[in-house]
Amino acid sequence: MQFTKFGRTGLTVSRLCLGTGTFGTQTDEAAAHQVLDKAADAEVNFIDTADIYPMGPDRAVAGRAEQIVGRWLRGKRDQFIIATKAGAPMGPAPWQQGGSRKHLLDAIDESLKRLGTDYVDLYQLHFDDPETPLDETLEALDTIVRTGKARYIGVSNFLAYRLARATGRTESLHLTRKA
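Above: the chain sequence. Below: its structure as tokens.
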């Protein structure tokens, strides 16, 4: 396996990252554990999941992929880089989705429970939330990093111009890493 630095950080990860979007529906737990075992045997150390995985119309299955990964990680958490995401609808209430402080602080706690760990290495916004001020979202992510619940933060499915606007605001926040 080849390894590389994660972005402009000191973190080294495998060049391949195992996505778990099908774990819990198309891939049952036993098969998912076999996939994870094969990836580990191939020295893949980077695993990506999300609170909404497996995605679909049935919200009852949301979080199942994190649970499957969490059960597999027991006793070997220190050997893997775990990434998860938040922002997708996790319940019927309007505050159970998006980039609000309330949702993100609740979402990280629920993800940590499902994963059976006290931190994730990378916590990402799964989707942009144009209804929530970006400052609020960035401050919530800063809180998550400062409290040690995530080591790094990132985004997925964001338009570049939204991030470019935020660049000036992040100078005062400690978002890139926690010692």
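The first strand starts at residue 3 and ends at 5.
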